[in-house]
Amino acid sequence: MRLDIVGEASAALLCRLLGLAAQHDLAAPEMEVRLTGDGMAVRLDLGGLDGPPGRIVAEKMLRCIGVEAVALDGAAL
User: Fold this and answer.
1) Can you give the pTM of this predicted structure?
2) Record's superkingdom (predicted)?
């Protein structure tokens, strides 16, 4: 499962996103972070979290303060 997240450039937001993955006791995800002007683009590749559980995590990430958009496997939520 791949998540693409766009939001504010914030270490606190990055911690919240990783915390949601950690709640599912996942191995360290593959992650890419790019600063874009005053924002941040994060790509998380989370193995072992497909189907409905993956969608739930994606929707929780979308509701995080500072997140503007989330795409799950290339499809916007």
Assistant:
1) 0.89
2) Bacteria
